[in-house]
Task: structure prediction
Amino acid sequence: MTHSTADAAAERAAWITLASVDGLGEHLVPRLAAAFGGATQVLSAAARPDRGRVDGRIRAAAECGLRPATLEGIHAAARDPEAVHRRLRELGAWALTPWDAAYPRALRLVDPPPPVLFGVGDQVALATEPLVAVVGTRRPTPAGRAFAARVTAALAVRGVTIVSGLAMGIDGVAHATSLDLGGRTVAVIGGGLAHGWPRAHASLARAIRDGSGAIISEHPPDVMPTKGTFPRRNRIISGLSRATVVIEAPVGSGALITARHALEQGRQVFASTGRPSDPATAGCLALLRESPARPLVGVEELIIDLGLAGGSPGIVPDGAMGVGRPARAMHAGDALAVLGDVERSVATLLLHGPVSSDALISATGQPPAVVAGALTLLQLRGWVIPMGPLQVAAGPLLLPPPGDPGGRPTHLDPP
Amino acid sequence: MLATLVTAVVNGLRGELVRVEVDVAPGLPVCHIVGLPDAALSEARERVRGALRNSGFEYPLSRITINLAPADLRKRGAAYDVAIAIGILVASGQIRASGGPWAVLGELSLGGQVLPVAGMLPMVSTLAAQGHRRVAVPAGNAPEAHMVAGVEVVGVEGLDDVARLVAGPRGRTADAARRRPAHQVSGGAMGADDAARGRASGTLWGPGLAAADMADVRGQPMARWALEVALAGSHDLLLVGSPGAGKTLLARTVPSLLPPLDDDEAQEVAVIRSVAGLRPDPAERRVRPFRAPHHTTSYAAMVGGGPLLQPGLVTLAHRGVLFLDELAEFDRNVLDALRQPLEDGSVEIARAHGHVRYPARLQLIAAMNPCRCGWYGEQGVRCRCRLDEAARYQLRVSGPLLDRIDLRVVMARVPPEVLIEGPVGESSSIVAERIASARAVAVARNGMPNARLTAGGVMAACQLDGAAGRLLADLAASTAMSARGIHRTLRVARTIADLTGAERVGADAVSAAMALRDDGMERLAAA
Result:
């Protein structure tokens, strides 16, 4: 009985310490651990005084050039192996290694899997399948934003955990819509947990952490995000997910990198279509032309293609929703039924995409004051959100009633 | 021989009495002006010399001393020219002041014409208040001077007219009477008056902003309604929208919608216009000011100041509307200087050589693009700004200023089919009638427009019913509204209720008021 539980715990802690050295990634951490006979041995070797010999062994084990800073990082970690663990406790964060049961199953299939996932929030979100990534441009059109919200809503109420990158634009819509409906969501960020998201998303990040979601990163907490870290985290977004849905990606969008990773990892990819000349979706169209990605022709079709059809939308699968929030599961039909006349006609007009207040006034034939009042009441319920000059449906208005073929991205049809 | 004449000076918006004493004594021919004159006033001796000679009088070859009393009051400008010239005529014995006491005001041209000066209205008011019953003013200033009651105002064209008044029917020397003044010989020469009028023209609305009628505005029902609410309650309004959304066109309808000034307001506005040299026209005395300065406007032009502590645009817009197009393009310190007027209704200008407080009870109507290229958030057009640039553009207008603007509307582009064949909206005259009656109701109830209701006053004025109170509490809780925000919502709700003729503010008015603080742009930037 040489391998006690205590040894396993020490090895796991050492592994986390080693993986938090800047410069050691999913290739070098396992390689060093294998060469020394465990992460614990790497650290104890590095702590020895004869530094020149140890560095030689590390370099040989790495099978590639190591920057002096990385070597110095290993020595620093060996001197104070507890540093990263203390920092995690400070932040209320946790770390997952492939030895942990909660390490996401889908990510184990990625070659090689990230050695450690640092995270805050609810680990259960990572393990609650299915997970689907919803990603897209940082600057969507209002229509793209509304469509992303509808896709997310349809998935979330079927118990799908929504994975995205906590960036501005589509990512934010995906997380927020999912939380709004009581669903689970996972945000994979490009930097460490202490600096991971745009300032505008501070409250969204808090909501994910404190709600039924998790924010994870492969980097230790204090790593600043750089140009290179964002594309790399995209492989984790796709790797966590059964499928990746790309909504509105112009040419060069990071969402296309996520899609490529997903395809390499053997996952499904869906990309929204659009007018042939529209730069907002040009990247999606190129992806559809050049890869096995499938066109996202409508929410209903997506649900079928993902094998989620059958469960009736609006009926929450067991365990997938927050407890005690049955009202969240109402769909557009229920929602319309509880509204007053003007509110209902305004909400109905918003069901198929964003509309300006002026267009609502002329379509309903009501005076501006009355429409304005109705919009305020709908916003108070959280069912409508003003976005620039447009009013965008949210909450239950995103969920078509059972049997309704709604949710087709009508705005993406050719003119 | 000594002659004393009464004239006046403008200090801030008030006139002050000034006594001009002229002593003509034997000695070397020199002319001294004492009593804190500025450069323009020191040059008076050249103007007076020319004017006297060209009006057929003599410029005495004696020692001339001119004293302007009180000595500690700084005198500026050319408004004393006529008094000095008449003083010289009397002191040198060319005319006898037998026409009774006259106060005289005006600038002289070398040809002897009496030219209009700024600030005539407050100066004549002061003279009247101090018991001077007869005033000779430049003909160009006569209309505004006639607005003062209780004083006999005579508009004069030339120096000889003034001399005739001062001398009375028998006081004039025969010698002088025979000659014809030069300005009449040369047909009044062109221009001084026209030039002054040119300076004043176009100032009512500002350059390049022609008036428009509400019927010219197609579509934009939400913004039209917001403007109606803003004008009915005197609420500040910000219009945000992409280029061509119709922001400026809508603003151009404002003059056709503004209710007329009442008597007291008209008097205040006329005094300001007079001091600014805009020569108030009695025919337009009830027209509410509407100023639309360009976004390159300087701090001093906006707030007032300069060497003469002149009133700025915020004061010229007193009791009226200041329209700032392209709000985000204005200088930051120019915009931040608006905070005091918006809060206090006045502006204080303090300089090393004095300070003055001007009224500036203005209603701000502003328009801006959502970003530099103008298309952020608009459907179907791609914004060319970087993401952070677009969000930052709106930060150019400081939070404290935005916070003082009650109403905000995000305008969407009008679809072409609406522009071409959409229904024609109500004309200005119909909307103006509703605005005027809502405003009258508010003033009758509060003694002021709703926008100026205090925190305590607004609760009393609103008389919220139960449902409205509950709704307001819900809204305040869900949007984390501050006390200021709640009062703002109530003031706007009060105006909306006034427009519909409702006595109490109901839930419908509260929810409608809430929508007039459109946060669509912030929501877009934060998402």
